[in-house]
Each structure stands twice: as C-alpha cells, then as structure tokens.
# Entry
Amino acid sequence: MRLSHHYVVPHVSTGDMLRAAEKSGSDFGMKAKESMDSGELLSDEIIMEMVAERLAESDVVARGFILDGCPRTTHQAEVLAALLAPQTLDLTVDIEVPTAQVMRRLAGRRVCVDCGANYSVSTPPKVNWLCDVCGGEVKQRKDDTEDAIRRRLELYERQTAPLIEWYEGRNQLARVNGIGPPDAVLRRIIRSIEDRRNRGRR
Ligand code: AMP
# Structure
C-alpha cells in the first residue's frame, strides 16, 4: 500500500480483492472466505481470472501496477507472464523475514475492516481500536489465528518459495531485508527498485 503511494501506481492486492468480494456477500465472496479463513489458497484459475480483469482496467494500463499477494504458485507466475507478454515484470521483491518473526507479526497484526490500514497490538490506533485514517473498526483478521498462520506458512514453503528461484533465474528478483520497522523496510524496497532502474539505464 505504502509503496503504491510512493510511486503513485495502483496497488493490486489479491487478498484485498477477495476480502472486498467477501464483504459484498456474493456467492464468490462467501466461497473465498472459506478458503481464506482456513489459510488455504484459492485455485490458480480463479485468482488469475480476477487478476487478468484488474490488469485490463484503465488506471493500471495507464500507470502500471504493484501486485501484492500474487503470484503464489509457479503456475500463477506463468499465467502472469503470458498475460503481460510481450512486456515483462520490472521486478519482484522478496522481503526476507525469519519465520518466527513472521509468526509474531501476523499474530499481533490488527487491520481496519474498512480501509485495510495495518496496526499491531504494540502499535494500536490512537483511539479505542478505531482506525486513525478512516475511523473504521480495527480487528484481527480471521486468518491471523495460530492454526491458519501455520497453514499459510506451510503452503508458502511448498508453493510460493520456489518462485524465488524462478524469478532469480529470469533476473527479475530483488531480495530485501524485512527486519525492522515498516519505514525502514519501505526505504530498502525503494532503494532496491531505484538501483535496478539505474542499472537498466546504464
Ligand atoms: P493476503 O491478504 O495476501 O495475505 O491473502 C489472504 C488470503 O487470500 C490467502 O491466505 C489466500 O487464502 C487468498 N489469496 C490471496 N492471494 C492469493 C493467490 N495469489 N493465490 C491463492 N490464494 C490467494
């Protein structure tokens, strides 16, 4: 989210899109909720159809995009590459955080149900668990419970981690140290994007 504000480029988050569908109460949203709450992945076909539609919208076509939460499998990466051809992704960013810390961060995370702003038990909103940005209710996500987190990390290791090599082999990967406060991590991500841009110009 903050990266997309920095570059003034649409933030395309598959998780946000699924949560919006859940909120709308549609059949699709209710099915997505079941998978999300238990930490399972939705099928590649459903996700990539949703992503294809979003990437065809005029704001994305005009400005580009920051894709968040996708691809999560090699098949999604292949479909994404085919969707973008003959263009390619500028860069993928692997934010490296030790597993124990990921567990702690997710278990302590609290999120605004209206605008998605992130807080944590150690950095709550100023007033009574109401969002500083929009006044919405700030809650724990259903999939930030211990069981669902464990399942998500298991699937990450099995299905998503292989993408690190996949993108490295295509010279499209930057590894960024994800330890430390959000501002510091954001600065590192921006630096790695700018490094890559500058190298491209030389
Ligand atoms: P996120 O907000 O990115 O953590 O995503 C929340 C949940 O939405 C995930 O745990 C999955 O259940 C589902 N989801 C989001 N993105 C994807 C994806 N690319 N492929 C499959 N499932 C996804």
Remarks:
- The first helix runs from residue 2 to 7.
